[in-house]
C-alpha cells in the first residue's frame, strides 16, 4: 500500500513504522515540498496529513487515493467535500493528542502568568535581580485565578483537571448548558475569567468567536490562551488589545495565517508567548498517531471498516 506522508520523519518515527515495510510503502514529503507532493500524489493510496492545507484540486489529482488520514482532530485544512465526491474517506484521531495539547495549554498559561520569557531575557542579559517594582503585582499563580475554558471536549477537560489540582476555580462554556458545575454562557465566562483558554474546532460558527467585543469583555489583567485554531480569534483585535494594555497577555500556539509571517505584529509584543502550532507535537502523541494511522491502513488493506471516518465518500 502506497502512503504519502506529508511530513519529514525523525529516527524514532522511521523505526516505529519499519516493521510494516513489507506491506506499507511510505513516501515522506516535507510540508513545503510541493513538487515532490504532486509527483508522489499520482500513485498514493493514502495521505497522512498533518497541517499543510489539502485542496480539492490536489485530491482530484490522486486517482488511486482512498483515504486521507488526519494526524490529529481538526479537519479544517482538508477539502472534505471534494474528498467525499471523489470517494475518498477522511479520518481523524479524536483524543490522540489530548494529553499533549492540554499540557501545552497549561504551559502557555504558566509562561504568560509568570512572565517567563521577559525574565529569561533579562537574566541572560546579566541584569541580575529584577528591578521592576510591579513584577510581583503582575505575576500570578494559576491557583489564584479563575480559568475559563471555551469548549469542553477531551482537551479542555484535561486542562480543567490540571488547573483545578493547582487550586484554580474552573469555568467552562459549550454550545448549550451541559448541567455541569461551572458552566457559563460565553459572555459571562469572558467577564469572570482571569485566564481564557480556547478549545473549539474551527467551523463557520467559531470563526472570529473571540472578537473585539469579546476581548473587551475580558478583565484588563486577564490573559488569553489559544491552542485550538487561529481563526477562532479576531487577530487584529487581539493585537490592538495587547498593544494598548487592554489585555495583559496571551499565549498562542495557533494563528490566523500559518506559518506565521515575519511581519506579524504579534512577534514584537513583549506580553505574548508564541509557539508554532506544536502543542500536540511530542514523541508520545506521535506514537499514538502512528499506531492509529497504521491500523487504519491495515483496515483499508483488509477491507475492514475504518475508524473515525468523518465523511461519507460517494465516489467520483
Automatic annotation (TrEMBL):
<dbReference type="GO" id="GO:0016618">
    <property type="term" value="F:hydroxypyruvate reductase [NAD(P)H] activity"/>
</dbReference>
<dbReference type="GO" id="GO:0051287">
    <property type="term" value="F:NAD binding"/>
</dbReference>
<keyword id="KW-0560">Oxidoreductase</keyword>
<dbReference type="InterPro" id="IPR050223">
    <property type="entry name" value="D-isomer_2-hydroxyacid_DH"/>
</dbReference>
<dbReference type="InterPro" id="IPR029753">
    <property type="entry name" value="D-isomer_DH_CS"/>
</dbReference>
<dbReference type="GO" id="GO:0005829">
    <property type="term" value="C:cytosol"/>
</dbReference>
<comment type="similarity">
    <text>Belongs to the D-isomer specific 2-hydroxyacid dehydrogenase family.</text>
</comment>
<dbReference type="Pfam" id="PF02826">
    <property type="entry name" value="2-Hacid_dh_C"/>
</dbReference>
<feature type="domain" description="D-isomer specific 2-hydroxyacid dehydrogenase catalytic">
    <location>
        <begin position="29"/>
        <end position="311"/>
    </location>
</feature>
<keyword id="KW-0520">NAD</keyword>
<dbReference type="Pfam" id="PF00389">
    <property type="entry name" value="2-Hacid_dh"/>
</dbReference>
<protein>
    <submittedName>
        <fullName>Hydroxyacid dehydrogenase</fullName>
    </submittedName>
</protein>
<dbReference type="InterPro" id="IPR036291">
    <property type="entry name" value="NAD(P)-bd_dom_sf"/>
</dbReference>
<dbReference type="InterPro" id="IPR006140">
    <property type="entry name" value="D-isomer_DH_NAD-bd"/>
</dbReference>
<dbReference type="InterPro" id="IPR006139">
    <property type="entry name" value="D-isomer_2_OHA_DH_cat_dom"/>
</dbReference>
<feature type="domain" description="D-isomer specific 2-hydroxyacid dehydrogenase NAD-binding">
    <location>
        <begin position="107"/>
        <end position="279"/>
    </location>
</feature>
<dbReference type="GO" id="GO:0030267">
    <property type="term" value="F:glyoxylate reductase (NADPH) activity"/>
</dbReference>
